[in-house]
Amino acid sequence: MTGGPVLRVGVTCGDPNGIGPEVVLKALAARPAHRLSIRVYGPVEALRLWARQWGLPWPEGPDLEWVDIPWDVRHTEWGRPSATAGRWVTQSLEAAARDLATGEVHALVTAPIMKKSLELAGHALWDHTQFLAARFQTRTVMSMITPRLRVAFVTAHIPLRRVAEVLAPALIVETVRIAYRDLLRWFRIAEPRVAVCGLNPHAGEGGLMGDEEERVVRPAVRTLQSEGLAVEGPAPAETLFRQALEGRWDLVVALYHDQGMIPVKLLDFGQGVNLTMGLPFVRTSPDHGAAPDIAGQGVARPDGMRAALALALQILDAWRTPA
User: 141-179 burial string, b = 16+ CB within 10 Å, else e?
Assistant: First the structure.
């Protein structure tokens, strides 16, 4: 995209009782050079107070816009979830969602929240992803993007014992279709090469260690191949991640949370970015939570938030250049 309207990245500050406000301030102060606009949804007065307390510079520049979502600092309970915090999180997300829906904002970077705060506020099933998927009525896929890996997840935040029950060919097919489309859309990979992990040790070893590979995964892969997608699998996860590091795969599809998160955290800890695939806009977040144990101390590392902001800016800025 060249010329035209200003492209904006929205930033929400996460749970006001967690490290979200701190890592947002630090990430904005050290934001990479870019050609876009950043709109921050946050408690401006409270942020100024905390910046002084933590000895942080106030982020400034013509690229920054502030949408004030007031927060009474008397309600701050560092490290503790609260209904008041949960309502504030919802209010800030609603403001960002309105701007995303009208096209004023084109990407969203979300600082970490405490799900318990949302539960206390009456939103027990909500997190960022569920909120956005419901608001924009779309099926989403969790993915992790690091300097060396891209990983999409068929299942994510469910107990391990339920993974085999939930897995189905249709779920794998839908996950890969969504991820494949976003590899084309956000990363401009002309012909994405995708590998799907097996579920069992050694990908089942021909049925000796489980039949999910032959019964569930392989039929899904065949369906995707029949659609012309460059998809292979199932194969052992340890093999596919090594091959991805060598450049053979553009995306590895993990069947459950730890299968994909362990290599991400081991290889690129602090640099991984959660990219929600399937939304009509870019949405990123850091690969860590609200860190209640250090909230309010001014010692949180902003690496993950900086990486999430940088990826959103990078993807959005690429729209300026015709593919």
Answer: bbbbbbeebbbbbbbbeeeeeebeeebebeebbbbbbbb
64-79: pLDDT as tens digits? 999 999 999 999 999 9
Q: Do domains 1-138+279-323 and 141-272 have the same CATH topology?
A: yes
CB 9 within 8 A of CB 305: no
Out of 3.30.70.100, 3.40.525.10, 3.30.280.10, 3.40.718.10, select the CATH number for domain 141-272. Answer: 3.40.718.10
Give the Cα separation of 267 and 261 in Å (integer). Answer: 10
**pTM for this model (two decimals):** 0.93
Q: Are 29 and 126 in contact (CB under 8 A)?
A: no
Is the N-terminal amide bond of 192 cis, ω within 30° of 0? no
Predicted confidence at residue 123, as pLDDT, reads: 86
CATH fold label, 1-138+279-323: Isopropylmalate Dehydrogenase (3.40.718)
Query: Which segments in the chain show pLDDT lower than 50?
Result: 1-3
Query: pLDDT tens-digit profile of 139-176?
Result: 999 999 999 999 999 999 999 999 999 999 999 999 99
Q: Please state the domain extents for the chain.
A: 1-138+279-323, 141-272
Residue with tokens 């991820």: 179
User: What dihedral do alpha carbons 177, 178, 181, 186 form, nearest 10°?
Assistant: -150
Cβ-based neighbours of 130, under 8 Å, separated by 6 or more: none
- E strand spans, the chain: 8-12, 37-42, 64-68, 107-110, 141-145, 150-153, 193-197, 230-235, 251-254, 273-277, 282-286
pLDDT at residue 275, as a whole number? 98
Buried b (16+ CB within 10 A) or exposed e, 21-42: bbbbbbbbbebeebebbbbbbb
Percent of the chain at pLDDT exceeding 90: 89
Residues 41 and 90: beta-carbon distance below 8 Å: no
- For residue 321, the model assigns a pLDDT of 63
